[in-house]
Amino acid sequence: MKHYKVYLFVLGVILLDHTVKLWIHFNIGQGFLGQINLLGNWLKVQYELNSGMAFGVEWGRTYGKLALTIFRLLATIGILFYLRRLLHRHAHSGLIYCIALILGGAIGNLIDSIFYGVLLNNAPADAPFAWFHGQVIDMIYVDLLGGYLPHWIPFVGGKYVPATVFNIADAAIFIGVIVIIVRQKQFFAKKRRKKYKTIA
CA 20 to 30 Å from 183, out of 63, 100, 142, 159? Predict the structure, then answer.
């Protein structure tokens, strides 16, 4: 497999992610006022800013966002080195492209966190500085699970669960992880065969 094709794939994911994010930022108002229905009431385009992780989970207040951005940076570097290792070991092409998909998504959201606080002026008002405090732009609004959970569910019954809002980068990471889980037997079959031969 030619390595440059994989890196071009990663770049393509990043460019698609930020083309959509910047179009949303400059053409659609935030929140429900700028909402665009795609498929009834359950699939919409809606401009939202996310200062935390998936589902709006945040790390503390003042320096939580900085810690999250640094964590994202370190995780992205780790994924990049893992991808390089897979390429040099001639791993299954499906696994390589799944990791490339995850890497593209990770870099996509990392760019928001590092630069958009300055370039788009979207850092939270209480951020100590704009660099590394950018909020991630989300726009794909899925209202399938939003609402109050049934009371019979232990511990969380009766609590309100917001609709899911995510972006292209999130989708890339999610798809990459799910495909690896579903096809792990095929992706890691060669490694397992080698292990059994060594033991024998």
Answer: 142
